[in-house]
Amino acid sequence: MPRRVFVHIGAPKTGSTFVQDVLWNNTERLKRAGFLMPVSFTAHDQAMTDLRQVPWRDPQAYWTWDRLVETFTRWPGDVVLTNEGFGAADAEQAKRAVESLAPAEVHVIVAARDLWRTFPSMWQQSIRARSTWRFEEFVTAVELGRFEGFWEHHTANRMFLRWGDLVPPERRHVVTVPPPGAPRELLWQRFAGIIGIPDGVCEMTAPTANLSLGAPEIELLRRVNMALGDRFPHRMPYQRVVHQHLVRAVLQRRDNDMRFGVGLDRAEWIADLAEQQIKELQDYPCHIVGDLGELRPSGMRQTPTPDELDERQILDAAIETIVGMLGHADELRQQVPVPEPTIMARIRSRAGGVRRGLRRTLG
């Protein structure tokens, strides 16, 4: 087994896409430095769905947790596993994962972000995972204690306890997400410092498009999900069709300048929750990278919610989206390779031979 295995478990919407981009775009550089990124992003993602035994795992998925682990049993250096869905594993699933990595020295890394930014991001993420509830329904469910899954699956505190208790305190790492306006490299520097990746090993690259949608765009996607019903029940087909041809090809290319978030009427509630989070992490023996004070919301201001949009705004977004999808369809059409003249000549020749043969047969 490797000397050390670093398991980056999330949380979702904490800059994980950026961190993963840097890791996956520098696999050869990392390998030469003694750090292995086994197989691929897809393998990690499929291994996560197998570990958690989620009902939406694609039946055609190849990679399991055990199959992924088998690929690096002979690696003598360090291994990095990363998927923001790992953190949602329950206690038994997390225990199985950590025990399967023995006798390697297992480290658990979790990232934490302030709740003011987390709430709209997590609701948007749920819509992009084909949920259909309104933003106000989502926030109210969390506020009234009717959606414990938010805390269990999407926040650092709960998921960290399930995983962190399985390793010694010095192998538990919390990375705080820098506030808005901070250099984007800062999050990477914090993450790399935990693993021990030296400066200069990885080249910084522009983040992959994982842009937030504006209020009209995400509300339009929510309504599309409602209209889809039970079509695309598994995540991979939904991503191949809806994400590829609607979200990435069209919705993310729009201005998306109408931001949305939690209203100021809930500012005090969120500030109190932030203090609870900070205290829990202060009291939990672990290695903190960054500043827990960054979990206190800053710059809170009133913003509209997708629920408050009028139908004209949704209609305008829908029409412009249809126009965008027509342009996307035309781009795909132009990408279809045109047969070379020689191939076309052979096709015409064979077609002519078929016609002549039919004439002879039919007399």
TrEMBL record:
Source superkingdom: Bacteria
InterPro entries: P-loop_NTPase (IPR027417)
Protein's UniProt name: Sulfotransferase family protein
